[in-house]
Q: What sequence folds into this?
C-alpha cells in the first residue's frame, strides 16, 4: 500500500493536490474553478465522488477559491481552521473546524496534521499526511520562513512538496514595487529558492524519496533555477526524485514507499 501524492497544479493562479491512501483521497486546497478542478481530476481518471474531503490551508484565493462550492456540489466535508473559515465568511457549521497541531483522521487509512506556518494575514498551515504504516508526506506552501515545529515534522517525511517561490536576484532586479518586494521576502511572505534549499538541506535524510518544488512565481523564478539551486545544496545526500509542479497539471504521481514515479 502506498501513499500517493499528485499535484493538479500549483502557483499564484491556483493550487490543488490530491493525497491518496488506499482509496481515501483528500484534496489539499481547491484554488481552481470547479470546472477546471473536475477536468484535471478527469485526466487522472478520477471523479469528484472519489474525493473524500477537502482541506483548505488558508484563505487566499489561490488556495480557497472553489473549496466551499466544491464541498457543496460534491457533498463532501471541508476542513479548515477557524481563522480561515472566518476570513472566508464560511458558516462554522458548514465546515469541519480543526485546531492546528491536532491530528485529523480522514479515515482509518489517512490522517492529516496541520502545522502552523507564518504567512501574511493568514493562519496558514503546512499539511503532513500519514497512512497507517506511518508513511508521511508534506505539502508546504506560502510561508516566509520555516519554524522549528515545521522542521521537526519534515524530518519524518518520505515525500516533501515545498514552495520555491522566487529567485532572489530576479525578484530584486525585477519590476515589482519595493513594498511588494519587501512583503514577498519578509517573514510572512514566500520562500526563495535559497531558503527552500536550506530547509531541504536541514531535513534531508536517506529515506526522503521525493521532492516536488511548487508555487513557483512565473515572473520571478524559472523551473531550472529552482531545481539547480536545490540540487546544488542536497545533491550529495538526496537519492530520490525531484520534480516541479507548474500551473498546468497534473503531471505526475509520487508513490511513497516504493520510490517509483509515474509520468502520465
Ligand atoms: Zn497565500
Ligand atoms: Zn498561494
A:
Amino acid at each position: 500500500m502506498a501513499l500517493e501524492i499528485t499535484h493538479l497544479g500549483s502557483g499564484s493562479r491556483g493550487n490543488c493536490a490530491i493525497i491518496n491512501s488506499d482509496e481515501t483521497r483528500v484534496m489539499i486546497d481547491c484554488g481552481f474553478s470547479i470546472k477546471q478542478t473536475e477536468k484535471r481530476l478527469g485526466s487522472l481518471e478520477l471523479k469528484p465522488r472519489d474525493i473524500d474531503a477537502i482541506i483548505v490551508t488558508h484563505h487566499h484565493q489561490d488556495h480557497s477559491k472553489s473549496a466551499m462550492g466544491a464541498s457543496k456540489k460534491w457533498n463532501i466535508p471541508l476542513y479548515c481552521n477557524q481563522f480561515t473559515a472566518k476570513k472566508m465568511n464560511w458558516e462554522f457549521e458548514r465546515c469541519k473546524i480543526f485546531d492546528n497541531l491536532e491530528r485529523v483522521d480522514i479515515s482509518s487509512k489517512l490522517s492529516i496534521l496541520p502545522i502552523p506556518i507564518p504567512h501574511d494575514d493568514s493562519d496558514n498551515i503546512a499539511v503532513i499526511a500519514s497512512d497507517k504504516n506511518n508513511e508521511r508526506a508534506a505539502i508546504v506552501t506560502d510561508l516566509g520562513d520555516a519554524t522549528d515545529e515545521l522542521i521537526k515534522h519534515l524530518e519524518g517525511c518520505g515525500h516533501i512538496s515545498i514552495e520555491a517561490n522566487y529567485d532572489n536576484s530576479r525578484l530584486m532586479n525585477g519590476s515589482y514595487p519595493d513594498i511588494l518586494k519587501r512583503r514577498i521576502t519578509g517573514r510572512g511572505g514566500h520562500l526563495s529558492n535559497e531558503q527552500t534549499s536550506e530547509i531541504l538541506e536541514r531535513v534531508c535524510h536517506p529515506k526522503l524519496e521525493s521532492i516536488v518544488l511548487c508555487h513557483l512565481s512565473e515572473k520571478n523564478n524559472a523551473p531550472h533555477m529552482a531545481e539547480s539551486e536545490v540540487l546544488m545544496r542536497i545533491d550529495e545526500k538526496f537519492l530520490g526524485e525531484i520534480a516541479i509542479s507548474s500551473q498546468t497539471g497534473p503531471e505526475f504521481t509520487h508513490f511513497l514507499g516504493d520510490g517509483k514515479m509515474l509520468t502520465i
